[in-house]
Design goal:
- The chain is an alpha/beta fold.
- The chain contains eight helices and ten strands.
- It has a single domain (5-19, 56-197), classed as Rossmann fold, CATH 3.40.50.
- Helices cover 25% and strands 22% of the residues.
- Strands 2-1-10-9-8-7-6-3 form an eight-stranded mixed β-sheet.
- Helix 5 links the parallel strand 8 (110-115) and strand 9 (139-144).
- 24% of the residues are buried.
Length: 200
C-alpha cells in the first residue's frame, strides 16, 4: 500500500501504528437537522470503559490515545525511553489538563492530533500551543480528515507531518505546502512577519 504520510516535504514510510480506541455504544439522534452521535454513558469522550478496553501492541512503535497512555503510564516507562511510544488526542481534548501528570512533552518522539472534520479549526491553535507554550520540539502530526487545503496552515501552526486521508492523493496534497510563497504574518514556522524579514 502506498504511504499517505507526508513528513517535511516528502512522502515517507510510516513506522508508527495508530492504536484506535475500543468501540463504544452510541445513540444516533437528530439535532438541528443534523445527525449527532450521543454516548449512552454521558461521560466525556473517550469514556473510561472505552479507555480500559483499548488493546495495543506490546512491541514496535505505537501511537496511543492520550488517556490510554495515562492509564498504562507506569508500565510504559521503558518503551517511552526507547522512543517506542507516542500519543494522540482529538481536538476536543484539552492537553493542559494532562500535562502535570505526563511531565515534559518532549519525552514523546511523536504527538499526533486527530481532526474528525475538515471544518474543525481547533487543530491549528493546538499545534501553536504545543510549539509555543509547551515548547514541544519533536514530530507533531495531523491525522484524520486532513486534506491538501489545510496542510500549509498546519505547517504554519507547527506541524511537520501529515497523514493524508486514504481516499486522497498524498502526492497532490504535498503541493499544498507551497500554496503561498512568503507568508505575511509571523507564526510557529517563521516567527517574524514579512515586514521584519524584508528590507525596503
Amino acid at each position: 500500500m502506498t504511504s499517505q504520510l507526508i513528513k517535511g516535504k516528502d512522502i515517507v514510510k510510516d513506522d508508527w501504528v495508530i492504536t484506535e480506541l475500543a468501540e463504544t455504544e452510541q445513540v444516533i439522534r437528530m439535532q438541528a437537522g443534523k445527525v449527532v452521535a450521543f454516548k449512552l454513558s454521558g461521560e466525556d469522550y473517550p469514556a473510561s470503559k472505552q479507555v480500559k478496553e483499548t488493546i495495543f501492541s506490546d512491541t514496535g512503535k505505537v501511537l496511543l490515545p492520550l488517556k490510554v497512555f495515562m492509564l498504562h503510564q507506569e508500565k510504559l516507562k521503558e518503551r517511552l525511553a526507547n522512543e517506542e511510544i507516542g500519543i494522540w488526542f482529538s481536538t476536543h481534548e484539552e492537553i493542559h489538563k494532562f500535562t502535570e501528570a505526563i511531565g515534559d512533552l518532549n519525552h514523546f518522539p511523536l504527538i499526533a492530533i486527530h481532526v474528525e472534520k475538515f471544518a474543525d479549526g481547533r487543530i491549528f491553535s493546538i499545534g501553536s500551543q504545543l510549539r509555543n507554550k509547551y515548547n514541544f520540539k519533536n514530530e507533531l502530526r495531523a491525522f484524520g480528515d486532513v486534506l491538501r487545503d489545510q496542510i500549509f496552515f498546519l505547517k504554519r501552526s507547527g506541524f511537520d507531518s501529515y497523514l493524508i486521508r486514504e481516499d486522497r492523493n498524498a502526492k497532490d496534497a504535498i503541493k499544498g505546502l507551497n500554496d503561498f510563497s512568503d507568508p505575511y504574518q509571523g507564526a510557529s514556522d517563521i516567527l517574524e512577519p514579512v515586514w521584519k524579514r524584508r528590507k525596503r
